[in-house]
Description:
mainly beta, Thiol Ester Dehydrase, Chain A, 2 domains, globular, disordered N terminus
Amino acid sequence: MVARNQRDAFTQAGAGIAAFRSWGKGDSARPTILSVVTTDLTLPLDNAAIERILPHRYPFLLVDKITEFEEDKRIVGVKNVSLNERYLAHRAGELPVLPPTILTEAVAQVGAILILAKPENREKLPYFLGIERLRFLHPVHPGDVVVIEATVDRLRSRMGQLKGWARVGDTRVLEGTMRFALGPRKERS
């Protein structure tokens, strides 16, 4: 809780520290999240740890767990596909299928965790510049556990390129290359 005469307060949140700033004047001041700083990444990263890195929240947070992480090199995440997910596409008499666009976004989110884990990128957001050579190889159904891997192809101070794969068991279901730019994280008003 923020004291009436206190302008800044810090709270410990698991492995990270969230910085808060008082907003408004007097008793109606509300704390607003400014930034999230993670100290060490202890694998596997669960949903709470992922939320400290990514700005996404349910139902748009598509990564359930991070199992492997090599800074500036590669990352492996898991997406569990459930029948309860609203965006599953299906017709009468057919199995529900995870839309390819949702699978592409899941790969992008795993790649974003890899990029945002670097200390110099923690106050930035990755923005899509392009998707190249993206291939959907097999459908993904409810009950499938999608293992997503992303590797850094190129990374500069403000731009980069990732290669991503998704597989169910030993079957590759998606592969492609994504380009992104890093921009400033805007404060919510």
